[in-house]
Amino acid sequence: MTATSHQAAAEPIVTLERITKAFPGVVANDNVDLQILPGEVHVLLGENGAGKSTLIGLLSGLQQPDSGSIQIDGTQRAINSPRHALSLGIGTVFQHAMLVPTLTVAENLLLGGPWWERPRKERLREKVDEISKSLGIAVDLDAYAHDLSLGEQQQVEILRALIRDSRVLILDESTSMLTPKGIEELGSLMRRLVNRGLAIIFITHKLNEAVSFGDRISVLKLGRKVGEIGPDRFKSLDKAELTTQIVEMMFGGQHSEDDAGFHKPNPLSTAEPPVLVLDGVTLESTSTAPGLNSVHLELHPGELLGIAGIDGNGQKQLADALSGQSRIESGSITLNGKRIETHSVGERRDAGLRYLTDDRLGEGTVSTFPVSLNFLLKQIGSPPYWRNQIERRADIDQHAEHLIQDYDVRTPSAHTPVGRLSGGNIQKVLLARELSDGAKVVIFNKPTYGLDLSNTVSTRQRIRDIAASGLGVLLISTDLEELLELCDRIAVMDAGTITGIVENGENARTEVGRLMVGLSQ
Amino acid sequence: MGSLFSEVFLGALLFGAVAAAVPLLLAGLGEQISEKSGILNIGIEGMMIAGAYFGFLVAYSSGSLWLGFLGGALAGGIVASVMAILCVRLGLNQIVIGIGLTLGLEGLTALLHHVQFSRTYPRLPAADVLAIPLLSDIPVLGPALFRHHLIVYLAVALVFVMIYVYRRTQLGLNLQAAGDKPAALDVAGVDVVRTRTVAVLSTGALAGIGGAYLANIGAGIFVPFITNGAGFLGIVLAMLARGRPVWVLLGALLFGISLSLTTALQVAGINIPTDVIQMIPFLAVMIMLVAFGRRSSLPAALGIPYERGAR
Description:
- The structure holds two protein chains of two kinds.
- Chain A is α/β, with parallel strands linked by helices.
- Chain A folds into three domains: 12-100 and 167-251, P-loop containing nucleotide triphosphate hydrolases (Rossmann fold, 3-Layer(aba) Sandwich); 263-352 and 438-521, 3-Layer(aba) Sandwich (Rossmann fold); 369-437, no CATH class.
- Helices cover 35% and strands 23% of the residues of chain A.
- A six-stranded mixed β-sheet of chain A has the order 6-7-8-3-9-10, sandwiched between helices. A six-stranded mixed β-sheet of chain A has the order 16-19-20-13-21-22, sandwiched between helices.
- In chain A, helix 8 packs across helix 10 (239-251) and helix 10 (239-251) packs across helix 19 (508-516).
- The radius of gyration of chain A is 26 Å and the shape is elongated.
- Chain B is mainly alpha-helical.
- Chain B has a domain at 23-227.
- In chain B, 72% of the residues lie in helices and 1% in strands.
- In chain B, strands 1-2 form a two-stranded antiparallel ribbon.
- In chain B, helix 2 packs parallel to helix 4 (94-117), helix 3 (65-89) runs antiparallel to helix 9 (192-219) and helix 6 crosses helix 7.
- The longest helix of chain B is centred in the first third of the chain and has 30 residues, at 7-36.
- Chain B is globular and about 65 Å long.
């Protein structure tokens, strides 16, 4: 935090005024004001869906705002393409690497030159040498992009922005795929860059990164800017006070009238022996996804255990490891006292483990099959509904009619292709299928994602009922409100590790929130 | 069977191979440009037949083969511009549009031919041959390889031009980036739609010239469906060669040989049904696909329309 005095008086390079951008069904940015000043690391903080990515899209020319104005150096501008953004001095390092894997580093850096010119590799080499020396980073110009680590690719992209003489550098969740050491290095690189007079917009989920790397912090929530901490306040507060204030901005003050509030934990739920135990469950990470790092969880009958965390921190991997779609490398999964980690998907189902995927149409159902067959998708060919591989139409229909009534599936008939139903009704078909006969543990992955309000409410009620009937329920969700409303306990995942388990209660929101942004309880 | 190895047979086989290879080479090099940029251009057969018809029309009415090639390039380019608007700008399905263009233009050119030429069947005089001094005097090989129209040599030279473009120019970088990771090209400040449009139009022009060659020099006449799958063979060549122009040349020669076997075997007086012989190039395709096709990796974004900011 070394904002020097002459920078304090500097004019903003970019000014956003009352920026609004809506997509079908959601207002991604709602009247956002933002000023980007030279010599400052401006941190944008917010949960999934807070509107950070949209704001970056607007600044980098990928999208245009519906209303509001963007001023560059005090002049109003419409940034209508990435090329235009670059020419205005705004360089972006996107969350996902934006290098062509089959080209070398040099060729990647040369992309965007005038097409009629020969690529000038020598001139590039000089320029890169000059910049990388003064910043203390090293890149191999002749290496292919696909051979670089994610950290190295990021450095190349930062270099690209600097070669283009960018004055504003946007780093979109750049630390999410980096090692702790890589994050440190990026932090000191940002400091060196702003000391040269650059402006940096740094987007992150992690509070400690924001506090240690930033000069100014803006917090976005559901598309709105809910607070800003300027350099003066930043300097006058110590880390703990700063953190408390930001957590309050991000997670506090959202108890409104229609908010169901938190769910009182069921005191009986932990009394019985656990029905599902995960011990040391480990899965290797890949270049695009985190693995699982020695996950330990216990789920008791009748308990609703939530898994919280920023999207992409291993939730999908956990679900796959439990359902049997990927084989774990070490550790054990015990269901009702029996080890099941080597069982196939079907065997786990027979043992009483049921999984409701977030990909309802892709993974969960065959959309062109009728509702009646989708109920039996995992038993096709076996008795009593098939005898000698011949389907018994009457029995299948009767079974379907029962389930349609029990679960209130709104379908024209049992023979309607499931793909024609609404999302909420497909959810019901899945539930009916998974909960019939012998379920002991049910895993929900983002069960209300993409559902409208009334279906969300009824799905949540149904999840509650399932737990109340004595089944163990594991609820994976990125929606903190949902978890607080339903769960007895909430475990938080961060980079494939369970960083803490919080008993639901009055302080659960803050505690889970702190864990989600990488702070300890 | 002694006649199989006679000078006459070999000469006719090689000369025919080169003549048959040229339109395949042009189509293959053209298709390669589109594929490099991420567009699977199945309309190339239609672009070729449009070039064949219009190239013939221009050459016949002007008396100039070169104007004929220009007309062929123009016609191929116009068909390609339809493809560019529908598939590149609007992002419609490349396979459906490609097949539609091919079928549509085969029908249209057949109809136009019927209206204009079905009574007269006009022919063009044999094309001027440019014999390359010294080389053309080599026995057997000389007349077979070095006594062709100038456009043949230009087509071969284009192979090396394309190597230069792909390896050494900014345009080459842009094309490869558009095919392998268009979003990266876009954020680097290059318009993906424009890059792919240039690629598709170049494909159309080259395919059109290839079509004009088929009609004006290969046959000296336009007949409906004259391209007879040459554009599709070009697609196969481009797929097998991936980004390498030299492979297109080698592949085109191989196909050229199998195509010219049809005539050469007749010259040699060997009695095999022509239907069987005409299957040879397509058998060759399958053999080549089995031999090399599994290893060829295609651009990652081939066939996928680019939409800015799509998640």
